[in-house]
Amino acid sequence: MNFSTLFTPASGTAKDVLLLVARVALGIVFLAHGLQKMLTWGMPGTAAAFEGMGVPAPGLSAWFSAIVETVGGAALILGLLTPLFAALLTVNMVGALVIVHLPFGMWVMDNGYELVLALAAGAVALIAAGAGRFSLDAVLAARSTVKAAEREQVPAGAAR
């Protein structure tokens, strides 16, 4: 067995498939939590819960959290504007970690921080790695590249 292959990061199609799986899994979790805030608890209930947890500006924070998690989760699933939404989701999770969960310790059953830490880490990884080839980001980048190449092929002095 060649152990060096165990320590070599995935590349090519394997990397893109792994990014797709990670993006979709994170996106589903974020989307579910955002929809829970909006549809299950409702925004007044979410704001009240945030107030009880000591979250600053609970009404505004509730809306920020619900929208970022819902729209950001859907964007991750689609691979649309991935670095931007991953950054917003990271900010959201770091806020939840510091403001609410950190004092309770690690375990989620005790309102701990393991879930928000894992979600923040996953979002940070997507900021670094991008969405991969199987994403709307890749489709938009390819279209942009084609259009830029077409503009460069217009002869000098020709009407644009």
TrEMBL record:
Q: Which domain of life is it from?
A: Bacteria
Against InterPro entries, the record matches this protein to:
DoxX, DoxX-like_oxidoreductase
Q: Name one Pfam family in it.
A: DoxX
Transmembrane stretches, start-end: 17-35, 115-136
Could you tell me where this protein is found in the cell? Cell membrane
Q: How does the UniProt record describe the way this protein sits in the membrane?
A: Multi-pass membrane protein
- Record keyword Transmembrane helix present: yes
The UniProt keyword set, sorted, is:
Cell membrane, Membrane, Transmembrane, Transmembrane helix
Is Transmembrane a UniProt keyword of this protein?
yes
Family designation? Belongs to the DoxX family.
- Protein name in the entry: DoxX family protein
